[in-house]
Specification:
The chain is mainly beta. The chain has one helix spanning about 90-95, and strands spanning about 5, 30-35, 40-45, 50-60, 70-75, 85-90, 95-100, 110-115.
Length: about 120
């Protein structure tokens, strides 16, 4: 499956809602992609009762080098509340195009906000 492109949302001050998008599906390159300036915060929501592993994928070279992919644990839902992970992709390490894949797509969605 292909990664789903998502765009930055900057919710207004009267609304705390953020649009969450499902990943592209199971298998390799199954998550999301977005343009990365380094000011974005990638928000992962997990409504499943098991933790998930998000892999921050390097999709370009930085200073002629390809940095290693890194992982983030997304907490499981507990007591009826979803687990959240707030993930930053420093442009110095992940270039101007960022991607994230998830090990298990059940109950997982993501949104993207930008620090003003």
């Amino acid at each position: 499956m292909a990664r789903v492109p998502i765009t930055v949302e900057l919710p207004d001050k009267t609304s705390a809602s953020l649009t969450f998008t499902a990943p592209g599906g199971a298998g390799a390159d199954n998550g999301w992609s977005f343009s990365n300036t380094g000011d974005e915060i990638f928000v992962v929501k997990n409504t499943d009762t098991s933790t998930k592993t998000l892999t921050k994928k390097v999709v370009g070279k930085v200073g002629g080098l390809t940095p290693a992919d890194t992982t983030v644990t997304v907490p499981a839902a507990a007591s009826g509340a979803p687990g959240y992970a707030f993930v930053h992709f420093p442009v110095e390490a992940f270039s101007g195009q960022a991607a994230a894949d998830i090990d298990n797509v059940t109950g997982v969605t993501a949104g993207l906000i930008k620090h003003p």
